[in-house]
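Here comes a specimen:
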Amino acid sequence: MTRIGVYPGTFDPVTLGHMDIIRRGAKLVDRLVIGVTTNPSKSPMFTLDERMAMVRREVAGVAGEIHVVAFDSLLMDFAEREGAKVIVRGLRAVADFEYEYQMAGMNQQINPRVETVFLMADVALQPIASRLVKEIAVYGGNIAKFVTPAVCEDVVARVEKIGRKGS
């Protein structure tokens, strides 16, 4: 039986922190499905198609069977459709834990056949958040420590297109 896990997120943009969780999560399952979603509470810098292409490019060299799939539904419904028994989530800080703990509890109530597994972010990557990467870039800061060179180029190009603040 194939062990399938889902790693959901907006990945706007995909960061080194995300990549760390993807690499490690891929070792825990036979197939890792990266679910790229829209989040109405976030205003994305990149379209869903752009984010999916970005994630696909970034995971191309990662060991394991990895699929990148868009979804716009309840996470547990998506996990069920993909045949997943595990949700992979990354934790950076105590604030993440409180939110993720609550979500895991709700998800367990929705679908008790799917477990949530938390992976602690690498200590060097814990402060990285897509929201902060975008904010730094929009204000002209260097984001090279937080994303791959290709993602850095994508973000810089998008900021040039939409206009940098503080200049």
Summary: The first strand starts at residue 4 and ends at 9. The first helix runs from residue 16 to 28.
